[in-house]
Write a structure and sequence with these properties.
Pfam families (chains A, B): M20_dimer (PF07687), Peptidase_M20 (PF01546)
CATH topology of the largest domain in chain A: Aminopeptidase
Family (chains A, B): Belongs to the peptidase M20A family.
Helix content of chain A: 25-40%
Organism (chains A, B): Phanerochaete sordida
Strand order of the largest sheet of chain A: 1-4-8-5-9-19
Distance between the termini of chain A: 20 Å
Oligomer: homodimer
Number of domains of chain A: 2
Protein name (chains A, B): CNDP dipeptidase
Keywords (chains A, B): Hydrolase, Metal-binding, Protease
Bound molecules: zinc ion
Chain lengths: 483, 483
């Protein structure tokens, strides 16, 4: 069912007010990673709660406990949950978003005040911290609610909301809340949810809408090599002792080929080659090697073949070396032999890779390779962090609805993408609620989330609002399991 | 000629006052690397000048120009030069020392105030910043001067002094002054100098006096690898692009074997094997693999053979990897692909290696190895710093005199050592004056120069004062070229 003209017209007619709404949200510097801004995150939570209630949503502010940060103990910002509609004949969609933002200072290189939305009418770009990540999408949902509430239009589905204020700081406290609510079943805030929709990622490029159905997992390691009791002077000891840095670079050099083939035995076990269907998805994507190199800022693609490069970033595992802890990292020419050095690297994982299994393989390989070095330094392997990969069924009605809605709003088929990184809450919902999760991005690939001069194109905001609403109508219409 | 009993007895009788002299010097926090302490370096210069004059030395305070430090323009501390004795029948010895010190704070881990000499009578250790590096040795010379002046004893040689206040900060300004004075010939401050004596290094251990006749040179490099336009997120780009860190660890892994054999072709050219005479020196040293490992704080010696380990630290070149600039170096698990990374390493050089030649060989090798990587990242090699190695004729009368003096004071033959690191002013004197330079250490290997709880043993201070004086008498006596 195409969204009613009444809804679409309202969005067009009220676009200036919708922009004002975004400006109001951007003006609250709700930086979750900065203890001195914690009050602003609370203020933002209250603002979101009040907006939801204006449009008939029943809400609650859920305390998530305490946080230890910068030597202080602070209250975590609450999760704002909401529900509207309880018609058992309608599907129920859970909407997730986050109202906290990354830090931003004019001195970082912003052209305008990051907390004052700057709408450049010539380019159609609205600059401001949080414009695209993730206040724009939350405003999109508020706009949809307003359009229905003000016009007395019934919503086509029951809606549940879960908006958080700690996403940019590891979503502290949220997982426990989601798990606890899920256990409550029908009586919990997420009772009866048929599918989840998360708008917190981006199109692959600046041209074509996208639906995202996969995220890579992670296994993060630190190889710690020790030798001397303290840092030594290379003038005095150089040549006479086994040096930890020397062992470390030898090991780091054995992890992956220059063009990205991981050298750890067994790491590719079980990963199937892409079949014709899957290859077709990559071939269909509106994305080129030139797009990748433009985004990377250098002619450094591992291949000139489009599908190869796309699979490398979306559906194949990868291994990156991030840096060294404990060695000399300053400018200048210090002649130190560092005593304890840690080499940080991580693998991005894809199904069926599991972090625990990868961890065992990495550790076995490193112990073998370390033994071959015949150094008298010692090695310890730290496992810092892990996350399982996620792939959704992109033929599920949740995706089908989003696809039809995209085609109706943008007159263009969406790219079906997988993200190279992780959005951990996706897995939390998928695992705890056992329903399909859709990643439905509003912004473009060049929006610069987390970067200076973050922006959202006004067309993505207004068309995006129409898309979110249209998606609900298509969900209502489409054949699919009603849980 | 053994030093007269009158001199030796005076030193014994006045040891408490000599300790007070050292305490007075230590109390002036003449930290050359700290702009806020610059006045104290000037104060220390004036103090040294006044002491010299008390004992009949004609002095001058030589301005060395300006320094740019921490955003300020400061006057460099002056060099204090002095002369006493102009007897053409006597040899003329130039004494060098530095009256500036390294920074020190109780909070670094000092057990006592670093700028208040703490004499622990039980252990005989005098703790304080500069106690051994290099105020102790300067006080030693002042003590020698006092003993002669107060007793009306003629000095056995003509003396020239060059004391500086910027040694711990690269001896800024001093090289130019030495070169200019040397050009003046007989009319300059260093006219007629027959040999140089520098007390600014340490015994190999805590048991046996040493004479040092060699210093390794240095060639310091930074391999800079660039790729992306800015740091990338490994979730988004990992696997799809060539990564600079990956190329860097590959190159750093090709520089040197774990046990220290340098892999750069031609780097060992011209370095002769140690002959029987030289091996004898190493066999004679009061030093063991256990001493090395105790000093290093770990069982990490590259060999269990004494001579092999000693040659590795003194007379063979070495290569150490110091660290990485531009990569992630913090704690935690940041998933960055660093865009520009610099790998810092340096070679310690021995005769006949020359930094320029080594540089050419290193650069050629790295370019060849980089080409083999087939990465699309780019490489640039920065040469940060170089210094030529130095070896003196340890059979020169200057060393012979020091050896006899050591045997008479300590009743023990000195270790003939070469230092693994550099003392740049040694080369400046050797090259500009064209005379033999002797490194005659006062302190022990465990004194902890530059470290917390720096100390000088009182016996090294008092016996050391006797040694400096005795050395002058042996110089006067010994057969040798009078320039
Ligand atoms: Zn976000
Ligand atoms: Zn974000
Ligand atoms: Zn020194
Ligand atoms: Zn020093």
């Amino acid at each position: 069912m195409v969204a009613p003209k009444q809804f679409l017209d309202y969005v067009e007619a009220n676009s200036t007010r919708f922009i004002d709404r975004l400006a109001e949200a951007v003006a609250i510097p709700s930086i979750s990673g900065d203890a001195s801004r914690r009050n602003d995150v609370f203020k933002m939570a209250a603002w979101v709660k009040a907006e939801l209630e204006k449009f008939g949503v029943k809400t609650d502010s859920i305390p998530l406990g305490k946080q230890h940060i910068e030597g202080q103990v602070l209250d975590l910002p609450p999760a704002i949950v909401g529900r509207i509609g309880d018609d058992p004949k309608k599907k129920t969609i859970l909407i997730y978003g986050h109202f906290d933002v990354q830090p931003a200072n004019v001195s970082d290189g912003w052209n305008t005040d990051p907390f004052k939305l700057h709408f450049d009418k010539e380019t159609g770009k609205m600059f401001g911290r949080g414009s695209t990540d993730d206040k724009g999408p939350i405003m999109g949902w508020l706009n949809v609610l307003e359009a229905h509430h003000k016009q007395g239009l019934p919503l086509p589905v029951n809606l549940r909301f879960c908006f958080e204020g700690m996403e940019e700081s590891g979503s502290e406290g949220l997982d426990d809340f989601i798990a606890a609510e899920a256990k409550k079943g029908a009586s919990g805030w997420f009772g009866g949810v048929d599918a989840v929709c998360i708008s917190d990622n981006y199109w692959l490029n600046d041209r074509t809408p996208a639906l995202t159905y996969g995220l890579r997992g992670l296994a993060y390691f630190n190889i710690v090599i020790s030798g001397p009791g303290a840092d030594l002077h290379s003038g005095i000891f150089g040549g006479a002792v086994f040096e930890p840095m020397n062992a470390l670079v030898a090991l780091l050099g054995k992890l992956v080929t220059q063009d990205g083939r991981i050298l750890i035995p067994g790491v590719y076990d079980g990963i199937s080659a892409a079949d014709a269907d899957e290859l077709q998805i990559y071939e269909n994507l509106d994305y080129s090697v030139a797009d990748l190199e433009a985004a990377a800022g250098g002619h450094i693609a591992v291949s000139q073949d489009k599908a190869t490069v796309i699979m490398a970033r979306m559906r194949n595992p990868s291994l990156s070396i991030h840096g060294i802890e404990g060695a000399f990292s300053g400018v200048g020419a210090k002649t130190v032999i560092p005593a304890n050095v840690g080499g940080k690297f991580s693998l991005r994982l894809v199904p069926p890779q599991q972090p625990d299994d990868i961890r065992a393989k990495v550790e076995k390989y490193l112990h073998e390779e370390f033994a071959k070095l015949n150094t008298r330094c010692s090695m310890k392997i730290e496992y810092l962090h892990g996350g399982i990969p996620w792939v959704a069924d992109h033929k599920h009605w949740n995706y089908e609805a989003a696809k039809i809605a995209t085609e109706s709003v943008y007159r263009k088929s969406p790219d079906f993408t997988r993200e190279g990184g992780s959005i951990p809450v996706t897995l939390t919902f998928a695992e705890n609620l056992g329903v399909n999760v859709l990643l439905l991005p509003m912004g473009r690939g060049d929006d610069g989330a987390h970067s200076t001069n973050e922006k959202l194109d006004v067309s993505n905001y207004i068309q995006g609002t129409k898309l979110l609403g249209s998606y609900l109508y298509e969900v209502a219409e489409i054949t699919g399991t009603k849980a």
